[in-house]
Design goal:
Elements lengths: L1 H23 L27 H8 L3 H18 L2 E6 L2 E6 L7 E4 H26 L3 H4 L5 H5 L21 E8 L5 E7 L6 H14 L3 H4 L8 H11 L10 E4 L8 H11 L2 E3 L4 E3 L5 E3 L6 E2 L2 E4 L22 H6 L4 E3 L10 H4 L2 H9 L11 E2 L3 H9 L4 E5 L9 E2 L5 H13 L4 E5 L5 E6 L2 E10 L1 E4 L3 E3 L4 E4 L15 E3 L1 E4 L4
Parallel strand pairs: 3-23, 6-7, 6-11, 11-12
Antiparallel strand pairs: 1-2, 4-5, 4-19, 8-9, 9-10, 13-16, 14-15, 14-16, 17-18, 18-21, 19-20, 21-22
Helix pairs in contact: 3-7, 4-13
Amino acid sequence: MVATLAVWHDFCSEFKWLREAIVRNSFWNNYSSEHFFDEAITARGNPRIASRELVKFFKNLSTQEMRERKVAAELAIREMGVSFTVYSDNKNLDRDWPFDIIPRAISSRQWDSVQRGLKQRTQALNRFIDDVYNGQKIFSEGIVPPEIVLKSKNYKEACKGISPAFGAWAHVCGTDLVRNHNGEFFVLEDNLRVPSGVAYMLENREVTKRVLPELFQNYSISPVDDYPSQLHKTLVSLSPRRIRKPVVVVLTPGIFNSAYFEHAFLARSMGAELVEGADLFVSDENVVFMHTVDGPERVDVIYRRIDDDFLDPEVFREDSMIGVRGLMRSWRSKKVAIANAPGSGVADDKVVYAYVPKMIQYYLGENPIVPNVETYLCSEKDSLQYVTDNIHELVIKPANESGGYGLMIGPKATEEEHEKFKRKIAKNPRNYVAQPTLKLSTAPTYIDDKVDARHLDLRPFILTGSENWVTPGGLTRVALRKGSLVVNSSQGGGSKDTWIVDTGD
């Protein structure tokens, strides 16, 4: 009888352990990412090297512990005031930043190649912008058709003949990367006007440190918190005055802008003044001054977060209430530096994007390290016919929209939407490009008490001044809706912390 009770006790203990193990891993049960490259788990279900400790850690959490970590992250985001603005029905709605607590891990070895490719690409783009406004040799040599650039709304005649310090126009570039079904990185698009998102990259890391402190003891993770100092260093290097402490300001459209949180965050982090157009004025000597309680103070560098058309009512839109009259005069006179430089958006165009590989070969004599996604220009007769015939398989993008607006994903669109876009393209073929519907990579994402695969992209930030610098990783954006390929927060997407991990290989 005693022996029987002992056996029963052992069985109950074993069953209890098994039951606890099942409960402990229930939120991760049945995880898979069929038909897509998953960045954490191989096709055989094993953790990838860079994600090994991550997967082990989360699989050892109970369902309750996982919920508690998620709640802790939400509370931290609210406490830190991390928000973004959504425009809806003529209203500005502030919402808490949507954040997933499972980080994305990329090996440092793989990132080294991507980083070199980003520096290469940004160098070529800056050479291109400088050429467009000074000489236009790339047109005369037949590398890029002049009409696609000179007829673009982003080409600014007022910038002709200007060459900023170091030949750098796009001082802060946000390049969107995706990974395909083989895990290879591709450039999806370049953002060279006023790219946003870097503050969220920094806050993602801060939130992760708060809710998952144990993981930072087991990983060698590249830090990102030096971005503000790197940005400040880049901006200071642009100063036309060679003084010990140039005055740097961040020019914002104001509190109703969707990226105002970031404008304020970066100004505060750099120790720079956050200003609006009314806070600045230009003297008769073309010098920019800032109003202060102690009187006017000269400004050396302006990190502008205002679109070109609203920057200076003297040159661009006369009705602009958020710009600074005379700012272009000051910039042309080299009395002030502006980052990103006016006119840099001439390369921030999805049609121009298709020519970047040729730019790299032309200006640098090199092959692209990180390739483009195959792109069809609807302004070309053969491409237009292909796009029209295969529109149900393609992603159609307007040349100058951002934030996921105005695009159509062929396989997910209706026949009515296909016909609608055919008419749009026929009316203005220059304004549209098409790309294959990529099998974007996925990563484990915690949603509705379980871990499921979601598609994602990555926006690293490249700084260009006297030196070049690339963020280790960047802003990972996640399509929170199952099966969705649209990752923008304005379209229902979220974000993850991005880790560049030294795996020792």
